[in-house]
Structure prediction request, 150 residues.
Amino acid sequence: MSIDEKAIQDLIDERDIRKLVARYSDAVTRNDADAWIATWTDDGVWDVGIAKAAGRDAVLTTWQKLMGHFRFVTQLPQSGVIEIDGDVAAGTWHYLEIGWPSEGPGTLTIGHYVDGYARTAEGWRFSERIFRILYMGPGDLSGSPVGSPK
Prediction:
């Protein structure tokens, strides 16, 4: 059995997109704005429910504003599914996010991203990330779910 070039390219692309998701989460955890915005296309759209921005500058400004409300945030990406179609791709990723606001107790957020990716001269980048919140509340899960995984 031989492996064709498209199958090999698909494996490389999927690996690179998985690395993109890891770099995104790592940048959030380290609160590294330069590394975080480097994961985006120039015309990227970011929608996290409580805020939405389009275009690299607006996306970065919105992220910095939201991150400014926290002492520390860590993102833990879970499973992900990626569908590649040439120079674009789509994916979904399940996430746990633990945050310690500037004031008040820590929070746990459970949700998933619906992503669009684009191949650029610098490699794969997010063209769109939409976060759907399933739970946001105390870390002991004593709050109520706010969404559905559908």
Observations:
- The chain is about 30% helix and 45% strand.
- The two ends are 38 Å apart (CA to CA).
- The chain has a mean pLDDT of 94.
